[in-house]
Amino acid sequence: MKTVYKRLKPKIYALYIQRGALRGFLMAQVALTGLFTLLTFVSELASVGTGHYGVADALLYALLLSPQKAIEVSPIALMLGCLLSLGAMARNSELTAFLAAGISELRIIRAAMRVIVPISIVLVLTSQFIVPPARSFADAHRSLALEKHGEDSAIWVTRGGEYLHVQAISASDEPRGIDIFRFNTSDALTAYIHADAAVILPGGTWELQNVTLKQIHSEMFVTQKLPTLRWASITTPEEMRLLTQPPSALSATALLHYIRLRRALGDPAPLYEGEFWTRTAIPASMVALVMLAAPFLFNLSRSGSTGARIGVGVVIAILYSLFQQVISRLGLVTDIPLMITALGPPVALILFGAWLLVEARQ
């Protein structure tokens, strides 16, 4: 019995810290998500009055995007939660009491970090099952209310020597405003096809309607007008559905599926790979920002203004978020592996936070 008690007793402080960190995280998460949802709503007010788009539609759109916003702000929300809740413990000398009881700073930090596991699980489930349908419904409802269904869903697909541009997708998921550019092995344009619409037939073939076909013969365009023309599409209906959604609105499994599909065709998808690795790096960013918060927490009871220290921590968190976005975009235009650009900043910040903690203890 004594052995069991000794094993359970050290967990009491950990549960106390975890409850405080989780409570602070939820408060910060609600505040930040609410702030960005409000900003989205204010931005949407500019479209009110177009078509049947009203204030209620703008509010609904902003609310439907809030789960995605919650995922994006979660690392900063966790840091703010730790600074607020554990900062209160530091001001009340509770952290000092933990240290006096022989509980090291590392164990306190480790206890706070344990909340990352349940938070990450909730974020993964939200990203997988809530964000995609919410974003899809939000975009469809917005386009319908604005009376421009599909106008925001233009896509480009390239495969082999053909380039496909679809200006819009109709309510029945049919392509509208189709442009096809065909190049030879010397990258010279050999044909251009424009069609007002297309019907997707079984097997993936498109029946182009009201077609203008321009072919180059002896450096001259030969133009034909055709009522219909069958074309072996370079894309699939499934890929079309994926391409009409921004990468951030897709589930992790959909991202992986599309990335593997493009790789199998020898056609990389950097935007989708970047989104996948950015999402994968969220737990690492949480660890990094908690590590960064630790030196500020343990210095609260020694000297300096509490508000100033928390303010510095918040500024660093915001700068880190901006830096991470810049590095992620850099990976899209350079040969730096996207995994490195996504995971590099949090790993660097973890090392920086560890160095700050060592310096603070001296």
Structure description:
This protein is α+β, with helices and mostly antiparallel strands. It has two domains: 2-146 and 274-361, no CATH class; 155-235, no CATH class. Helix content is 62%, strand content 17%. The chain is built from twelve helices and six strands. The chain has helices at 2-8, 11-44, 55-91, 94-100, 105-113, 116-145, 237-243, 252-264, 270-280, 282-299, 306-333, 338-361, and strands spanning 155-159, 162-169, 175-183, 189-200, 205-217, 220-232. It has a six-stranded antiparallel sheet, with helices on one face. A hairpin with a 5-residue loop joins strand 2 and strand 3 (175-183). The protein is elongated and about 85 Å long. Residues 1-8 have low confidence and may be disordered. InterPro entries: LptG, LptG/LptF_permease. One of its GO terms (biological process) is lipopolysaccharide transport. This is LPS export ABC transporter permease LptG. Keywords: Cell membrane, Membrane, Transmembrane, Transmembrane helix.
